[in-house]
Write a structure and sequence with these properties.
The complex is a heterodimer of chains A (about 200) and B (about 210). Chain A is about 65% helix and about 5% strand. Chain A has two domains: about 15-85, Rna Polymerase Sigma Factor, Chain: A, CATH 1.10.1740; about 95-175, Arc Repressor Mutant, subunit A. In chain A, α8 (about 120-130) packs across α11 and α9 (about 130-145) packs across α11 (about 160-175). Chain A contains eleven helices and three strands; from the N terminus they run βααααβαααααααβ. By secondary structure, chain B is an alpha/beta fold. Chain B has two domains: about 5-50, no CATH class; about 75-205, Immunoglobulin-like. In chain B, the strands form two sheets. In chain B, strands 2, 3, 5, 7, 9 and 10 form a six-stranded mixed β-sheet that branches. In chain B, α3 packs across α4. Mean pLDDT of chain B is about 80; it is low at about 75-90. The chains are: A mainly alpha (about 200), B alpha/beta (about 210). β1 (about 5) of chain A pairs parallel with β8 of chain B, so a sheet runs across the interface. The structure holds zinc ion (ZN). Zinc ion binds near residues 3, 6, 35 and 36 of chain B.
């Protein structure tokens, strides 16, 4: 059977699509790597995002800030499909954790601040001990450099809530980076596998 | 400002997220406060380490590959035609094109029949590409002569895309509209790795159906 290759109808739109998205593939790939923690999974996730975005290329033509727009699609896809499909262990909701960490607890004394370990290995290991919600915030905001305004769009969380979450996430990270390491994330263990 | 309030804002200070007034106020305090100077240095180190957390390097060909893949999967026209290859058969002028085999460069041109495209009307022109085996990641390029345009894409003179050849007969069909009663040559090129084959198809445009 003959295979008919017929490409003309979308040739021009396709090149617009490619041109507009090409500069953002690398940041999307990085974000996907941060979320999935695996470069092959990241490639697959970005590919799925692009397939999902392609039918929306007319909408894309009118979007000024492509990176947060596409990042939001990627993040949603990661949460809704990807993580569920891969049956990654989900940690407890961040809400009890936030209640647990009151304002007083979130503050570091001057002495604490000077005790803080800041070497790369310690920072990486502390980050891995954070709840997923907090880790994602730190990775996106402090590591990848997304602004809070961008994160408001990507994570669909109001700015005020984001600010306090970032504050709490950083405070939690710093507690983990204190030399004595007495403060652990309250809901770190046991992890559960969520099957929805 | 209290030291505790200053320390709470150190991450924003290091990131440069504060408004100028707040930043000036903080810097003034930090300059005069040893404890806060030390804390600021720690905060800077912490944020530098966060920024230094390694991440995989994206393969250099990934962006182009992924974008093309998305465009290929998202093409409704392609699926429609593949599902109903015979629907268009009646109106197609079939050009017996090339046999795509690995090897040296090859240009097919001499001896091809002139394809006639009516002025102001669409003629589906199909190029046959014979492949002895399937090829992935094949680059296709088409350059149109000035006497025809692609239906619905009057400004598109040259276009390229990536796709695959299946084993057997592949058909590349182009809806051409004659715009100028003149002669010309359509050039179709198929590239796979180092193998590059071109097809030069003489096109004539005539008033009325030629
Ligand atoms: Zn101070």
């Amino acid at each position: 059977m003959a295979a008919i290759l017929s490409f003309w109808s979308n040739s021009r739109l396709k090149s617009d699509f490619e041109q507009r998205l090409a500069p953002h593939i690398e940041p999307l790939f990085r974000l996907a790597c941060r979320l999935t923690n695996d470069p092959l999974d990241a490639e697959e996730l970005v590919q799925e995002v692009l397939v999902k975005l392609y039918p929306r290329r007319d909408e894309l033509a009118n979007i000024e800030q492509i990176r947060p727009w596409a990042s939001r699609v990627l993040y949603r896809m990661f949460i809704d499909k990807w993580r569920r499909r891969k049956l990654e262990p989900l940690k407890e909701s961040e809400l009890p954790e936030e209640q647990d960490l009151d304002q007083q607890d979130a503050q570091l004394s001057a002495e604490d601040y000077l005790q803080l370990r800041t070497d790369l290995g310690a920072v990486q290991s502390a980050l891995n001990q954070l709840s997923e919600a907090h880790r994602t915030l730190i990775l996106m905001h402090d590591v990848e450099g997304y602004t809070l305004v961008e994160l408001e769009e990507i994570l669909e969380v109001p700015l005020g809530t984001l600010k306090s979450r970032v504050h709490r996430a950083r405070a939690r990270l710093k507690k983990l980076l204190l030399d004595d390491q007495t403060v652990a994330e309250p809901f770190d263990a046991p992890e559960r596998v969520s099957v929805k | 400002m209290r030291c505790q309030d200053v320390r709470n804002l150190l991450p924003e200070l290091v990131r440069g997220d504060l408004n100028p007034a707040a930043e000036a106020m903080l810097r003034t305090h930090v300059e005069d406060c040893r404890a806060c100077t030390g804390a600021l240095a720690r905060e800077q180190q912490l944020q530098a380490s966060l920024k230094a957390i390694p991440v995989a390097v994206m393969p250099s060909d990934f962006a182009a590959r992924a974008l093309r893949q998305a465009a290929t999967q998202g093409r409704p026209g392609l699926r429609r035609l593949v599902d109903h290859p015979l629907a268009l058969a009646a109106s197609i002028v079939m050009v017996c094109g090339m046999a795509f085999m690995l090897g040296r460069e090859l240009t097919v041109g001499a001896g091809l029949e002139v394809v006639s495209v009516p002025l102001g009307q669409t003629q589906m022109v199909a190029l046959k590409i014979d492949a002895p085996q399937a090829f992935d990641h094949v680059e296709f390029e088409v350059a149109l002569p000035s006497n025809v345009v692609l239906e619905g894409q009057p400004d598109l003179r040259e276009f390229a895309w990536s796709g695959q050849l299946r084993a057997g007969v592949n058909v590349l069909s182009l809806p051409l509209v004659g715009v100028d009663a003149a002669g010309g040559q359509l050039i179709a090129t198929v590239t796979y790795g180092n193998t590059k084959k071109s097809l030069r198809i003489p096109l004539s445009v005539a008033v009325g159906n030629g």
